[in-house]
Structures
1.
Amino acid sequence: MTLNASFVKVPITPPIGLRLGGFAHRMASPSRFIHGDLYARVLLVGSRMGELVLVQLDLLGLYSSDVELIRGIVSKRLGIKAGDVVVMATHTHSSPETVIPMWVNTFPYTREERALYNQWFNGLLSRLEESLEGGPIHEPKGVRVKVGELDAAESGRLCVSRLTGGYVSVNIQAVLIETRNGLGRVILYSHPCHPTCNMDLGVSPDYPGEVHSALTSSGIEPMFMPGFMGDVTPSVRGINCISNLGNSISRAILGGMVKLSEVNNDEVWVRVKRINVPLRQPPPLARAKARFEELYGKANELGLIRREPIEDLWRGLNERWVRDRELALKAKLLLDLLYADEEYELAKGNAEWEAAELGVVKLGDITMVTVPGEPFTGTLNTIKARLSGKASGASMNIIGVGYTNGYIGYIPTREAFRLGSYETRLARWSRVAEGTDDLIASEILSLLT
């Protein structure tokens, strides 16, 4: 068995002044400082059976059009088919708004903001291309691959399910790729918890950045594979969350690597399938516009339309703050305005379907299933259960990877729709119709069997 691999990473940290994605309470405020650098990472793996490239970026997400730009660059520079390039975003909520810019009608991007964003993103693409023009990525070495599931009970106590409110049972799926002399090591790891620790105006890779710091100091380059984590979030937020969760994961990886097992085959391939996903429909355009303008006017009268973080107002919706009636009413008004803004934007397009690329990536004994959005843990459990029903042990070494090759938003389970959880309220980050999780599970199974 012969596997070869090469790796490169390049910084893609944005300049201060870009809006950060993922949190509405930032109120379209520009970033003010940098907690840690963002990176793009490229891993090339090949054997006599085929080759593939994994590209991982410390970003909120990427639409399919941007994925195709990156695939084109990688394909051109590495001479690999674009379809064999897999592009993942870590989904850090402290990176620029590469997907779903928030408050798009309340605070439209200025010409200067759009120019700054375009300059940064085009620079990202240029730096990525430059990193692939020569050097180590073109000098693959013979490697061995080890895989396994690492106990991460400690990090599980730092993450909660948004459906049940309880702590989650977490194991880390790990794939270690190391040169035969052990001098070069890259570890792919999947952890099913949103990188949403940081909520301020600082750029940050979030807890995967802490893992990066800890592992690179031990000579290991980590690549975070965002799991099926649409319904799992840190139990607390803030800078301490980044440190606690990141260090917990690092300890699990460093302490568990000796338990990983070497793969016994050199299969390397990618399969993809493009499907049309049904979307829920917004109100008619005229009604959505009128609703947005009504709520905007009310919020403006109260002085709430300002580009300053107002986290205290969002906390006004929490039960422990509800005794302050005025605060709670202002918070609810802003929340209603946010969703009115979203419905107005959706109504301008009023699409019925959205294309989605599903994938299966085979690397030795590991099978990664990829989804271009935010799937829930229950969907991965469904896929594994159905595989186990077909053949004993078929679900072993299956890794679910979300936020890959595009972005279609949350993909809630039927249980989430029944509970009416946050992830099911109509917005550009939650558009797919109920039952899409079952559709995706079935289509992925068709790729696997």
2.
Amino acid sequence: MRQIRILFFFLLCLNISFAQELEPEQLYKKVLPSVMTLKVKEINGDSRIGTAFMTIKDGIAATAWHVIEDASSVTAKFSSGEEFDVSGVIDIDEERDIALILVKGFRRPLLKLSDKNPKVGMKVYVIGTPKGLEFSMSDGIVSQIRMIDTAKLYQFTCPASPGNSGSPLLNSKGEVIGIVSRQISEGQNLNFATPADYILGLATSNPATPFIISSLFPQKLENILKKHYEARGGLKNIKAVQTIQTTGKITMMGKDYPTTIYQKRSGGFRSDMVMGKANIVQAYDGKIGWQIIPMAGTLDPIDMKEQELQSIKEQADLDGFLVDWKDKNYRLELVGKEKIDEKPVYHIKVIRQDTTEHHIYLDAKTYLPVQETEKMKMMGKETEIVTSLGDYRKVDKLMMPFSQEVGGAMPQKIKFDKIIFNEEIPDSIFVKPAAKNDLR
């Protein structure tokens, strides 16, 4: 009799466990009142959409940080058709792309965060606003649990599109296991969510910071620079490079000219460009900048003028403007998030001691430079020089641009075919040679 009772109790518990699993239509009905579409107006006047969901406590919603980043105002719309203003940001984890926001719509049901880690193959659901199609539901499985860019992510197969960012990734009980954050667009159903556990690490008692404050979080520039260093290959690997030798060609006025560039951490820089039988040299030995321009009628080295010297000194810096910028007496300002060729970029202004400026634009996804601008005097007139960078490839452990396009009075296209690190370069090639003779 006792064995029968034990068996009956086991079957009862099993039945209760099964009852916790919801059919898809039941899950949708349960979760829907907690999910909202976010209508985001950006500081620059553009607009976008995303998704969020009520959780933790009354008035608080979770979403992906990139959905509300650089917002001037945000409105939350529920499936009932009601719309409420979002007061601002309570807290963020920019590294993991999550944020808590304060929504003025109260007494909404809160979604429970799952206290169990998902397993590969587990059934999951997403409810959100793909491509503006509000409150759409899709299903799939957890296909893998990965570490990407030092962050833990759940890879899942539920169909998702732009607008799904910030959506809850749900288990079959309607509990949140993750926040939809990113996808690999070149593949099929390669979507990722940030684990919901990370929400618990955010502060819920902070006052909401209004969106109109453009410097929403003071550490933002620091975080962008950190991601920039990581994207390049890490500060340790950047500083491990002692010499760089680059070969390629410069295209001007429809003709190609072979070019070799030498750089040394001790401060040496030299470029050799072959134009027919002539060899144009620009060099810097750490103190003196000089050049040989046969077309000027002489093979003797000519000392560089102040503006040219400043430019070649900066080219001799292996690490670039953004590494150890304080030690180089630069000031950096994060101007904001802009667009170049319809792609979002972070605009960073570099201010030198003499107050002249250099502008760097980092791709908002890769954090690699895609454009740099500088105003220079050419033939007595101030001209903006725009340099576009691309074709990034990994050389040893660092990402390097293999193409550059330089605008201005004489546009140039530069294509590199080889970049070599840490090969011995003699200091003698940077030293200004003795005068030879003129060509007259």
3.
Amino acid sequence: MAEPTILPRSKHVLSRREIDPDALKVLYRLHRHGFSAYLVGGSVRDLLLRRRPKDFDIGTSAHPYQVKRLFRNCWVIGRRFRLAHVRFGTKTIEVATFRRKLPAGTEGEPPLGVSSAQAGEPSPPVARPTGRPQDLASGIVRRDNTFGTPEEDAFRRDFTVNGLFYDIATFSIIDYVGGLGDLATRVVRSIGDPDERFQEDPVRMLRAVVLASRLDFTLDSAIPEAIRRHAPLIAQSAPARLLDEYYKILRSGAAQISFARLADSGLLDHITPDLLTGDHARLARALEALDTYRARFAQAPETLTNAILMGTLLVPLGLFGLRGPSQDDVEAPVTRTLGLLPVSRRDLERLVQVLGLQPRLLQTDRPVRAQRGLLQRGALRDALTWLELHGNQPDAVAYWHDLLVERGQARPAAGNGTEDPTWRARRRRRRRRGGRRSRPGDARN
């Protein structure tokens, strides 16, 4: 077993004050009950870089149903690998048992150290190799459901900067994979042979490029070479998973540089070749506008819906357009897919509504009755977001936003120009249908 590099609290900048309070609750409770409990993955990386993490994930020696027994607000999910989700309102803290890497075709070995019965969980069905010829030939791992040690868990992760652990027991950083050195030199390096790791999970190729783009890191020289050799494998990934990765890119604040580097790497040729054949300058401007909007917020705002994000790709490509001043004049989408990516019918329909409202939003001198009707449109908020992103009409955006605030339908602006998060919308009480119901004991005529 390799000796890890351990950085004591006095030698690093990560503070518990910067960790989500609910994540701390989970870490402390696991520790109090005798389990190892680490903050893991991208959250440790981002905190060491003094960035705000998107999620706070936890790794532990506790098995999923042991975690469930400690938290009433816990649900066990997953088929490929069981995870515990501890929910605090709308927030979810993901807790994963340490696991180990399995060679392709050997999935389904029993958990290390303790059986399912001893861990207090139902016995899972034995996972067997899928038998798909392409999987056996390429080495893609479809199941990965075997528990392991912290060291084994670190070595099964994708990149060294994502393999760092924060130990709540000692407040130290634990590094089995050399991630601290790569963090200092700003390098994205694969854990293990990139050829093997990319064959196991081709989506790692996309993530490597995006991670380097988002953090302004450089790629280790072995990664671009491995991507060139294995880029066609990305087409074997689940389309829904690739679509989710695209939405993450579009919400990251580094969409323009990420898609430019994905094009240079050759990956876009196998996922969305349409992005390479359209108006490159127009698409770049749309992505730059999206990144500028995203930079105003600490986290991706709810206003960046999937319809807005997909429209940012589709409209510059000419797959959507306006022929006239009404929603009926929006051209029908050419396709419901973008390369390999399946686009939701609901998102396409919302995008049609959003584009159809754009000319109306520019007509701020319309009669009051017409404006009131527009305020009731379900797609109005998405339409205003689109206008703010791509319409270059700040006066019109300010007019409609002020009108919404005046009517109590939008949050007033905070000091930085964003919406005040402490504001709550006024809710109108619904009137009961059928009149007031009689209660027991009411006098009857």
4.
Amino acid sequence: MDQRVTQLFSAAVSEEQLIFAVFSALRKKSTPYRRVTVKPVLLQNRLLYQAEYHFEKKVTHENLTAEECLRLCTELLTSVFKQANLFTAEHDYQILANKPDCARIAVQPPTKTPGCLSHDRRKEYIIADGTPCDFLIRLGVMTPQGRVHAKHYSKFRQINRFLEIVDDVLPVLLSQGAASAPLKIIDFGCGKAYLTFALYYYLKQKKGLPVQIVGLDLKEDVIAFCSQVASELHYDGLHFEMGDIADYDETARADMVVTLHACDTATDFALIKAVAWQASVILSVPCCQHELFYQIQNPLHAPLLSQGILKERMAALLTDGLRALKLQEHGYDVSMIEFTSLEHTAKNIMLRCTKVPELSSDAVDSSGASAPSARSLSRRAQQQAAKDYARLCDFWQVHPTIGQME
């Protein structure tokens, strides 16, 4: 095969520039199919290439990896067809390969534009694919034209899933925050801050709300990068600081606290801070629950706990369960929901916590109960959560860090 042709196919696939390829002009009339087309598709967040074989009375499909696609393209143009038309985001190519080792290549301006790659039912996202979004472009998730890079589509979906959850709790955030003051949000362990930027973009740019968001992380280079991006985008209410969750300013206040995949007890310290600040909303996706793995024991379940993988999972579930109970004890409504997992972890349980407002003495709740009655019910629920927490700790013989919450 002519090396120029090989390089064309390789670049189109490896750089994700391929839009469509058509192979035609059979070398042998005995070949059962008449034409083959190849295009990229996104199946379950994985970029594949779909080869479509056109027979006289039917069409068949085959999904291929990038490597398999390159092999197929080379084989088709070497042994099966004499012509290929390659459409990419930058150029159109017509390849005439009567002699595979010495092909003629014609180059033209592009005539096709990338379409939606997904074969799944199209979902309406808060941030749409195809609409340029400044922070996603700057962070490399989108092209300047607004097209989501296939390799970052899982990150794109995660960002939108996060914003859907934020949208759900926004009424609580607005109803309990001061009417004139900007919303104060702290993101503990923000990392590369995809979701921190998304939060600012959604609340400030799309909703027009006054916000002050602080992203906290231990890595100096990450904080420097995120600060630079925020400055370039003129995200004036978004700031990044280097520091440890446990040592963060005790006098700070927050309307909302976010802690996504903070490791082990860092999640506990973030939750303790959030409760001390009386945050209206807490969104937490725990990660790496090692603490209770080394504490958990119970004679009845000893056979199960002897298996490391079962012990790890039980410790993780117990950790999340105890955190939820402790938050309920302190007046939060806690829901455990599924969150799109990050690429580096399978942990995807989110604790979505909203502060239950205190009723005034002359208030009536939605069911018509008087304020004293409603407050009594709330106190009983908190007391029950405290009892359940104590019983579980005693049953499993554990002393989790979240118990330091006062």
